[in-house]
Amino acid sequence: MHILLTNDDGVFAPGLRALRKELLRLGDVTVVAPAMEQSGVGHSITLLEPLVVTQVEDVDGTRLGWKVEGSPADSVKLGICELMSRPPDLIVSGINSGSNAGINVLYSGTVAAAIEGAFFKITSIAVSLELSEHFDFPHAARHASRVIEKILANKPANGSLFNVNLPAHSRGEPRGIRVVPMGLGRYGEGFERRQDPRGRTYYWMTYNPPYHFEGAETDVTSLSEGYITVTPLHFDLTRYDAIPDVRRWKWDDGPSSQ
Known about the structure:
It contains six helices and eleven strands. It is α/β, with parallel strands linked by helices. The protein has a nine-stranded mixed beta sheet with strand order 3-4-2-1-5-6-7-11-8, sandwiched between helices. Strand 9 (190-195) and strand 10 form a beta hairpin. Helix 1 packs across helix 4 (137-153) and helix 2 runs parallel beside helix 3. The N and C termini lie far apart (63 Å).
């Protein structure tokens, strides 16, 4: 098996290194990842600037892969189309420093890289570790590898897409694995208003978890209870249930008069 490993924390991130070590038990691993941290960039791609690509080595001097002066989605595109001798059998993105559960899935560069892989009809898995004062990436990588093995053992269809979140090590050993939908509750967004030394006002985004956990079981609730969460995703945003009704609207009357 040939695995393309990427992330949004940058090619030298400890989460990527820890996961690579575990994935090498499953097959050959090629790293193609952003040169710098790209958290929160979503599914952006680079159109107006050249994409500079440089080979990088591991700490022992062996070839690690490539760093890309671009986004996670750029990295996957380049890996598949230009840098690898053949398309990979599996794409893994992570381990991200901080969970990508709930509506954070829509902002996540980690998940976007996996979505890009699914575009190419390659099974793709995003992996993230819950925010904690101390990240234990080797411990998380061992759990992530076992989850990935379980997914592959069930032979998902080509292009299948999964989002995996791991609870922080401070919660103790995971209580198990739950297959759950992504939460849709709004996070406690806010901004802290500040002034720089020149008197200019600027804002720093604050972060708070969702205010309410009641209701259906989701990746957010299960992660907070210490479970590993697995969420099958798809990137087709079409509201198929709404198409028949919208088709009945009067579309041929021309522009309305003022």
